From TrEMBL:
It comes from Dreissena polymorpha. This is SGNH hydrolase-type esterase domain-containing protein. Pfam families: Lipase_GDSL_2 (PF13472). Residues 8-133 form the SGNH hydrolase-type esterase domain. InterPro entries: SGNH_hydro, SGNH_hydro_sf.
Length: 148
């Protein structure tokens, strides 16, 4: 199946405040399929999983209205460092991410990232994936989209 693959990203972006220029660039490209990789930037000690899911579903609606046929979300993986919220603990982060992932599973198309392991597949910053983790991420996406 011929096609074109493009990567659109903005470090630190949240679902509640998507980068306007990035969204415009994405809408201009008019993709048939969009995969949203969630990193957990929205999660903090005062965040509401329901509000985060609402923001993600709003983003999905915006993409559908712009002509995207399929929108898929990768579930939020573990994290070990929370630079934007020093009061955040791993336990609190995981509780919120699990609620978000469960709700997304019920309301959207979700790519499960079951083979990504924390901390083995992460950089020393404990936030971003290392080369092995990124390879696993792309294999999950490819397998989901193409049934591999």
């Amino acid at each position: 199946m011929p096609g074109e693959l493009r990567f659109f990203a903005k470090g630190g972006m949240t679902a509640a405040r998507p980068d306007v220029d990035l969204l415009q660039e994405l809408k201009t490209f008019q993709p048939h399929v969009v995969v949203v990789v969630l990193g957990g930037n929205d999660i903090c000690t005062s965040s509401s999983p329901a509000d985060i899911v609402s923001s993600l579903l709003r983003l999905q609606t915006q993409l559908h209205e712009a002509g995207t046929t399929h929108v898929h979300f990768c579930n939020i993986c573990e994290r070990g460092y929370f630079p934007k919220d020093r009061a955040m603990t791993k336990k609190c982060f995981n509780a919120q991410r699990n609620k978000i992932n469960d709700c997304l599973n019920k309301n959207a198309s979700v790519i499960e990232l079951k083979k990504i392991r924390f901390p083995a597949d992460y950089h020393t910053d404990m936030v971003h994936m290392n080369e092995v983790g990124n390879n696993k991420l792309f294999r999950h996406i490819r397998g989901f989209l193409f049934g591999l």
